[in-house]
Design brief:
Elements: H1 3-23, H2 34-60, E1 63-76, E2 99-108, E3 129-133, E4 137-144, E5 153-154, E6 180-186, E7 200-206, H3 211-217, E8 220-226, E9 231-233, E10 236-239, E11 244-254, H4 272-278, E12 280-284, E13 296-298, E14 302-309, E15 317-321, E16 326-328, E17 331-333, E18 335-338, E19 343-349, E20 354-360, H5 363-367, E21 371-377
Parallel strand pairs: 1-4, 3-8, 11-14, 13-21
Antiparallel strand pairs: 1-2, 4-6, 5-7, 7-8, 9-10, 11-12, 14-19, 15-18, 15-20, 16-17, 20-21
Bound molecules: copper (II) ion (CU).
């Protein structure tokens, strides 16, 4: 820099300093007057409270561990063998083959993978529901007991590429048969309920080595994240402002490339066209024509419904409750629309006793058996 330019800059800078000094209400500084002492005291208070809050938060945040195995199973879409909604109509073409080879996620109590955690019947084909509180870390120990590489890819929670469980990134992206992998996820504020959400929200997880095939396999589960402070207890992360919660998956399982288990069933189809339709199972939690059971609440129960949509272009679903309305992000309705990948959480207070229909409102899907019942038991 040239010296003339330098001195120019110096003058300008001095002028700015002068202006700022003259414009300031300048008072001589006395370090230990009462006002300064007060200020120092308050600063100290604010600082220590912030530190305390931070430490308490860290102490309260949990690391929640889950053990999940993927296993090959046989799945029956209508174990009763009947259309339980309209018995006289039967199961039509969708009843000609009911049992298929599938895969499922199962929860175990610990690393020995010997004691399976029992699930309520209404969960159907769904994998375990993992419950966490905002701020928690999650460790999911995954054992692949099946016969092909599988993974767990979670929505909503935070992870690095190694823990994405997808996209060929790291060993978690494709766990070989017989191997284990521990996924590290964080349920930070970006995974927690937002301003218009209820006190907990639902996220999907599914296998993502060949995502399309593995969703139809049945490798689907959910994580529920409860807003911090709304958990029931430190060891019970479920939300405290509801009495009952259900999770329902609306998915047309495409079984056209899958092995039908019971011999002779495939011959039951009279034509390739019939087989193609009959192998599309329009299911709620993997059951058709009212075979999903256990959606029962007591009158006046505060009920939360976690809704999931998956599949392809035909999977345009509209979940509809008879007998009761729900609040969906503050809006009143009794139909919630779901597209593939949708995750919606809605609330209701069960008012009127009854054995109510709960079904997809798409005409073609009603015919194909995407329906069941939910029951409100009268309060005594
Ligand atoms: Cu539908």
């Amino acid at each position: 820099m040239k010296s003339a330019l330098k001195s120019g800059f110096l003058k300008m800078s001095l002028n700015i300093i002068n202006v700022s000094l003259t414009e300031r209400d300048y008072k001589p500084r006395i370090l230990f007057n009462t006002r300064n002492l007060q200020l120092a005291f308050y600063t100290f208070l604010v600082f220590t409270s912030a530190l305390l809050c931070f430490c308490t938060d860290s102490a309260e945040a949990e690391t929640r561990e889950y053990w999940i195995a993927a296993e090959k199973v046989e799945w029956n879409y209508a174990p009763s063998g009947q259309n339980l909604i309209r018995p006289s109509m039967g199961l039509d073409v969708w009843g000609k083959a009911l049992v298929y080879e599938k895969y499922r996620y199962f929860q175990y109590t610990d690393a020995t993978y010997t004691t399976q955690v029992e699930q309520p019947v209404w969960m159907g084909i769904l994998g375990p529901q993992l419950h966490v509180v905002e701020g928690d870390s999650v460790r999911v120990h995954f054992l692949n007991r099946a016969d092909k590489p599988l993974s767990i890819h979670v929505h909503g929670l935070q992870y690095n590429e190694e823990n994405e469980g997808a996209d060929m990134k790291g060993s978690g992206a494709a766990v070989p048969p017989g191997d284990t992998f521990t996924y590290h996820w964080e349920a930070d504020s970006d995974a927690a309920p937002g301003p218009n959400d209820p006190s907990s929200i639902v996220w999907l997880y599914h296998s993502h080595v060949d995502a399309v095939a593995e969703v139809y396999d049945g490798l689907i589960g959910t994580v529920v994240v409860t807003k911090k402070g709304m958990e029931r207890a430190a060891n019970d992360p479920r939300p405290k402002d509801i009495d009952k919660a259900f999770t329902t998956l609306f998915l047309v399982f495409n079984e056209n490339d899958r092995k039908i288990v019971e011999s002779g069933q495939s011959e039951a189809y009279e034509s390739p066209e019939e087989a193609e339709e009959g192998n599309l199972k329009h299911a709620i939690n993997g059951f058709i024509f009212g075979n999903l059971k256990g959606l029962e609440v007591e009158q006046h129960d505060r009920v939360r419904w976690y809704l999931i949509g998956l599949g392809t272009e035909v999977d345009m679903h509209t979940a509809h409750w008879h007998g009761q309305t729900v609040l969906n992000a503050g809006k009143r309705t009794d139909v919630v629309d779901l597209l593939p990948g949708s995750m919606v959480t809605v609330d209701m207070t069960a008012k009127t006793p009854g054995n109510w229909l709960y079904h997809c409102h798409v005409a073609d899907h009603i015919t194909a058996g995407m329906n069941t019942r939910w029951r409100v038991i009268p309060k005594r």
